[in-house]
Specification:
- 69% of the residues lie in helices and 1% in strands.
- The chain contains 15 helices and two strands.
- The chain has helices spanning 11-29, 47-50, 57-63, 66-98, 103-114, 121-132, 137-143, 159-184, 188-196, 201-212, 214-225, 233-239, 245-248, 251-261, 265-294; strands spanning 40-41, 52-53.
- It has a two-stranded antiparallel ribbon with strand order 1-2.
- Helix 3 packs across helix 15 (265-294).
- It is globular, with a radius of gyration of 24 Å.
């Protein structure tokens, strides 16, 4: 019994954990009961316990819906591009910020680039829609060079890259904090020895900074792989339109349209469960690979 006794000094900390644990249970674990819809012909009037049980029929139906294959391909492409571009952008900005000698200027830049991370895509979606519209800021600037107006958000071939670039702009500031912290753990004497050997700043970055950040880079990429089938629901929903469904429709937005707007709850639950299982497998495999590459462990 003594093993489960909470020390008096830590009682306040445990009490502080109660609200987030309750919220997590209500909004993350309790909704998992809805997974049963994937194996039913769910009808809201009958509920979970009385709807017809159909086994794997919903998954078989998904296989024969042409849109599903395109949606999965779009999700994989957009999510992969985001992981690559956002990681490279965060590493690059972190290294550049580390080279700034003025602490005031460095902190000012960090604050400016970190600020968009706190803005929701409801706000950012409106801003980018205005900027990329026919009469928006970008087309106004292009008109000064004699370029005809471009409706950016209606071009299917451009839309995935707009998603990647806008999210990179939003999230890079957060990534730089993680990688700047990794840079501070590097032994300063390595740089001093490199200077004595006549190494340039580029050589120091290539042979000291990047290897010193290796474990953090592997960890961040590993954690990102778990979200490979999550291309950003809020962002896509705020920016896309029927004109770009071919290249911009992702699993989450497809589930939203099919499951909620068209009331096909069972199909939406089936592809949602499929995505969760694939994500679990990917993050497990990537974690095992990360352990072998960098000998880094989360648990």
């Amino acid at each position: 019994m003594n093993a489960f006794k909470i020390p008096r000094k830590q009682l306040a900390l445990y009490l502080m954990l109660i609200p987030p644990v309750v919220v997590l249970f209500i909004y993350a674990y309790l909704p998992m009961l809805g997974v049963v819809m994937a194996f039913q012909r769910y009808q809201p009037t009958l509920g979970f316990f009385h709807s017809e049980w159909v086994g794997l029929d919903n998954f078989k139906r998904l296989y024969h819906i042409p849109d599903v294959k395109q949606v999965i391909a779009n999700t994989l492409f957009i999510a992969t591009m985001k992981i690559i571009v956002e990681t490279l952008a965060a590493i690059t900005v972190a290294i550049l910020l580390n080279e700034i000698m003025s602490k005031v200027f460095k902190r000012t830049v960090q604050t400016i680039i970190y600020f968009p991370y706190f803005l929701s895509w409801v706000i950012l979606g409106g801003i980018f829609r205005d900027m990329l519209s026919r009469e928006g800021l970008i087309n106004t600037m292009l008109a000064k060079f004699g370029v005809d107006p471009i409706i950016f958000l209606s071009k299917a071939s451009w839309f995935p890259y707009i998603l990647v670039s806008t999210e990179t702009w939003q999230i890079t500031g957060f990534g730089t904090i993680v990688f700047l912290a990794a840079i501070t753990t590097i032994d300063p004497t390595l740089y001093e020895a490199a200077v004595m050997d006549g190494a340039s700043r580029w050589k120091q970055t290539l042979h000291i900074t990047l290897p010193g950040m290796k474990s953090t880079i592997v960890l961040m990429v590993t954690l990102s792989l778990g979200y490979i089938l999550n291309a950003g629901f809020e962002q896509v929903l705020m920016l896309y339109s029927p004109a770009v469904y071919k290249s911009g429709d992702v699993i989450d937005t497809w589930v939203y349209r099919m499951g909620l707007q068209q009331a096909q709850y069972s199909l939406g639950a089936a592809i949602g469960l499929f995505r969760s299982v694939v994500s679990l497998v990917l993050i497990t495999v990537s974690y095992m690979i990360a352990r072998k590459i960098s000998d880094h462990r989360i648990f």
